[in-house]
Amino acid sequence: MLSRVAERLYWMARYIERAENTARMTKAFHLLALDMPKTVTLSWKGLVAVSGLEALFEEHYQREDERNCVKFVLADASNPSSVLSSLRAARENVRTTRDLIPIEAWEIVNELYLFARDNIDGGIGKRGRFEFLSEIVQRCQMLTGMLAGGMSHDAAYDFIRLGRNLERADMATRQIDVGAIRLLSRKDDPEPYEGLLWTSVLRSQSGFQMYRQHVRRRITGPDVVRFLLQDVTFPRSVAHALSHAQLAVESFPHNEIPLRLAMQARRHAQDADVEKLIGNEQLHDFMDRLQLEVAQLHEAIADCWFPQAFES
Description:
DUF403, 2 domains, Alpha-E domain-containing protein, 15 helices, 0% strand
């Protein structure tokens, strides 16, 4: 397989996963805003904080209100991680690799982008936001299922699997990190709506029902962090995503450096002492290091198999 083709498949998967994760996160935040009492002011800047693009947001917007924050993460062309930007990039990558993936996959991605482009105003506004975001998530999942069930699990599919899981791990670390900063630093003044806020973090990863099924305890910060970081049976946990990224890397030749980095990141996520990290107020630093390890793994993948890789 040509390196440029492998690169496009990898980035197609990352962009689709990024769009789905951003839509799911925005949907969870929207539901949180409906659940919170009207007397409580909810900072929508948290949506921007997860992406790490606060500086870019401040360049283009003077007010940190709901509409501006939602517009930035869903539709802003200057934001390379917005849902619309991600779907546009994914569509272009699929368009140039149509001979390697099922034709139905191209149709799903093309229709997904056109739907998002034509209905984006409904997502920005409150009235149609839930339906718009739900449709984005469902169509992204349709593509994932179509590729898993209708594409040969060869090298091309392994690059798709690698991109999807690396993006999934990166987003999960960011959401855990932002949640921890906002919620675990109030030891002396517990947040009265902490349960709702941690529920929103779980919903951002579609993990609420699985958490209740497998953890079977009331929702607490340490338990949520441990579940989203280390539960290897939950497909959106960091440990699970990095394990599957490692499996994909193992199938490629000349994989020594990426494989070592994948194993290292997975081991660090899986073996972390969450209680100790929270008790010593080191969770934020740990998540920063884990995000750096994921970024280093991406760089190693690009150096090894995409000699002229472009940036996300």
